[in-house]
């Protein structure tokens, strides 16, 4: 295991890491590998719903200089929380809750920048999906300026289920999207809310938009049609802070 780069390499070592409940984000397996041990690993990863990517050996060689034996796993440097824990803790606070949901955000540096802003604006927790979301890597930690160790992050199977749970807990869900006429400056962010931010290229999925309580956008006065997601997220969060002061 490479503690510095948060990696586990070698089929047997990855099996042991998963069985030890390490926070395994993703496993890279060399294409074409055969044998009982690789079958055991694949079965274990499926049971634990861990993302697998089958890659050529050159990719594995770039990931680590160590003897990877055909498999490399990325290990999260932080521990994740359950959604229920985030909500329960927020309910003990006298202030209205403020959550962030990230729909398939894929860039680790954008993720880190968002975590940093979330810490500065008093976000109670960040919720991401287990599959398809940007992992928490050393780059994420660095970009967050260490805030990733301070803001609780929950991983969920399906973001829609998380939204239903938040709504049943009295949290209003607001999606940041250009597909609306409502400006963020015209809606109330004073009550308990969860702000949904979409991926860099696709935005928020249509099913999430339909599930949201409100849609809101930022006014864009130039010719470029969108902001960087971390910048847009910061504007939304600080508008919530402004309204609550």
Keywords summarizing the entry:
alpha/beta; 245 residues; 2 domains; 10 strands; Alpha/beta knot; six-stranded parallel beta sheet; 60s Ribosomal Protein L30, Chain: A
Helices and strands in order, then pairings?
Elements: E1 7-9, H1 11-19, E2 24-30, H2 36-47, E3 51-55, H3 57-63, E4 71-75, H4 83-91, E5 98-102, H5 108-120, E6 125-129, H6 138-143, E7 153-156, H7 159-168, E8 172-176, E9 193-197, H8 206-211, E10 214-216, H9 229-244
Parallel strand pairs: 2-3, 5-6, 5-9, 6-7, 8-9, 8-10
Antiparallel strand pairs: 1-4, 2-4
Helix pairs in contact: 1-2, 5-9
Helix content: 25-40%
Order of helices and strands: EHEHEHEHEHEHEHEEHEH
Order the strands across the largest sheet as they lie in space: 7-6-5-9-8-10
- How many domains comprise the coordinates? 2
What does this structure look like?
The chain has 245 residues and is of the alpha/beta class. The chain folds into two domains: 69 residues, Ribosomal protein L30/S12 (60s Ribosomal Protein L30, Chain: A), CATH 3.30.1330.30; 162 residues, Alpha/beta knot, CATH 3.40.1280. Helix content is 36%, strand content 19%. The strands form two sheets. It has a six-stranded parallel beta sheet with strand order 7-6-5-9-8-10, sandwiched between helices. It has a four-stranded mixed beta sheet with strand order 1-4-2-3. Helix 1 runs parallel beside helix 2 and helix 5 packs parallel to helix 9.
